[in-house]
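Format notes (please read before filing issues)

Several people have asked whether sequences and structure tokens are stored in separate files. They are not. Every record keeps both together, in the order shown below: the sequence lines, then the token lines. Line labels are part of the format and must not be stripped during preprocessing.
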Amino acid sequence: MDVIIRFARYLLVGAFPDGPMGGLLLTLVLSTVAGLLSIVVGLVGGLMRTSNSRIARGIATVYVELVRGIPFIMVLFWFYFLMPRVLGKPLTEIGSSVYALIFFFGAYATEVVRAGIDSIPIGQHEAAASTGLTRVQTIVFIVLPQALRNMLPSLANLYVSLIKDTSLVYFIGVVELNGAATQVMRRESWAVFEVYAFVLLVYWVICSLLNAFSDRLERRLAT
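Then the structure lines:
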């Protein structure tokens, strides 16, 4: 029993506070930071996608279509192996993971924001213009507050996908939940079933709670 408790502690928080953060704790930190910054990228990208500027729309469209056509693992490898050559300096494993998650999920958040903005009737824009509001004022004070309510359920579902994709960052040496499980399994091969069953349960609980929150939020906003 003590062995299982020790494994569970390592899988949840890694060696923290005696060493580097890892396990579920690092998974939650990665997903939270990347999730919030992905929304920022999505907001900027969504505004560019709905802009009157053909150049802004073109840049945002190329970005979205590029990301939607490739798997996340390739983006992760880009940032870990190729970006250091471009920047002329190495990136840490955690830094590469965060940048890759932001770049990848920022594109999907861009489409969520674009759809949210497009869901607002054109009459709202015309009514705002008739009162003397500029386009920027219309977007900030009229469109975005209404669009945000339509976007929240989709952004919550996107966050669930982001949490699940953090399981891939162990390929570049990040000891998040999946990476911690792999390390335990390599040291204690007898506990393979127990370790991965525990990891499966943790992912399922987190994602189920978030999905339940998303469904409840969607029903509440619908009323």
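For reference, the curators noted about this record: The chain has a mean pLDDT of 85. The first helix runs from residue 2 to 13.
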